[in-house]
Amino acid sequence: MTEAALNQQLWTLPLDPTQLRVLVSGYQSWSEAELRPLTERQSVPLLPWRHQQGHDPDFLPSGQAGVWRSHTVLALLRPDGSGWVGSALEAAQTFTHWEARALGDSVEVTCQQEGPAAPVVWEETNDVTTHLEKLAKGLGDQMQARRPAPLRVWCSWYSYYRTVTLENMLDNARLARQHALPFDVFQLDDGFQADLGDWLEPSAHFGGHARDLPAQLHDLGFTAGLWLAPFLAAPTSGLFAQHPDWMVRGADGQPLPVGHNWGGPYHALDTTHPEVLVWLRDLAATVRGWGYSYLKLDFLYGASLPAVRHDPSVGRAAAFRRGLAALREGAGQDAFLLGCGAPLAQSIGLVDAMRTGPDVAPFWDDESRRLWLGDSTGPSARNALHTALSRWYQHHWYQPDPDVAICRRELSLLGHAEREAIAGMLDVIGGLRASSDPIALLDEQGLALLRRCLSLSRPDMPRTLTESFGEAVTHFTRGTFNLTDRPLDTIPAHGYLPKG
């Protein structure tokens, strides 16, 4: 690790590992959360750049059988639902890393922290589900979690990706009004900007400027939302050309690549640099001044990666939190901030909502990437359900965002059961509601499903963690998911069965 591990603790449990299940949560939005037999293997991606873009490079999944790593929380379950739950009680400045290790006739649990020592608990309980809910609520309360009413959002990403235009946004907003669809927000996603980091300049294809959109959306009765990846800069951007000294650096002193997307590598801003914090505040204030009161802040992990920073006395968690606080200050306390690709617990109290799984996609599974490359952080309906369902308790930290419903049948490989499973996920998670279908592609059946997906609900709880149909939490009080590739208990493969 790049910072000293503090306050390391160890517990040895005289238990048969073959009788236990483990519930883990990964580092950031896209990192896997799973419910698995303790003796199984935790996968780690084969490609090093996926360590940066999907995980914490300083505390990767183990890649070993019987060794499971988790961030902030960890639970071990006996067959009767009792067991142990560990949790950090504070996370603003500190990463808390848990590991459960099967040792033959016992289990060794370790907890180590990166950053200032923060309180943790490791407690035995007769009911793991209820106890984890209690500890999650305690962490949220301690960090003054923002829990506003959930919003219903249309976003452009899964319709148009980076080719979105100003007229695409307005066409869909007009159709939403025509069909009386109950959206609160229309959010412009990636593609409006000249380059990654050059947010204030329009792309050549957008057909206008992002500042031209909010007033027209307001006239149609919608709040305007905007996507930003505020901590990132492309090597081709004006931001990078003008301020290479603002980037986090590698050991060689050069700007550090922090992932691979948009056709190549990209860099991250150093949020311990005072000028960077001013720039972030100004960016958020500028787009808020354009009329965007809803901001989706994506790829936020870039500010928390291991790197050489301007101020070496600031730890990774604290550096991330400084950058996010600057954005909150610039946007205002009344702005709605949705985090994505972000360290989860370290965002509590600053974001209103948080993506709690990988991107949904108009297909069920990217099986070759998941099985052969060991990477379940990429877009797919299966990955989104798998992780978001296993983080059900995080509604105590922010409004959870399990990503969008996909209701269209055109331009999609999802079947009826898979679309219904996504709808079921939105219902049991109970947070933000979002859609990204081109509204013109929706027939009456698709519009009916969309209206159902936009119906708000309270977060549900698992009815058991000792049984699952897939490698995740699947049995909820309002229904049961089948994430496997075969029918189980009258539930189709990749399907959902509501109670009753």
From TrEMBL:
Keyword field: Glycosidase, Hydrolase
CDD domains: GH36 (cd14791)
Keyword Hydrolase in annotation: yes
InterPro entries linked to this entry: Aldolase_TIM, Alpha-glycosidase_related, GH, Glyco_hydro_36
Domain of life where this protein originates: Bacteria
Record SUPFAM superfamilies: (Trans)glycosidases
Name listed for the protein in its UniProt record: Alpha-galactosidase
Origin species: Deinococcus xinjiangensis
Origin organism lineage: Bacteria, Thermotogati, Deinococcota, Deinococci, Deinococcales
Gene: galA
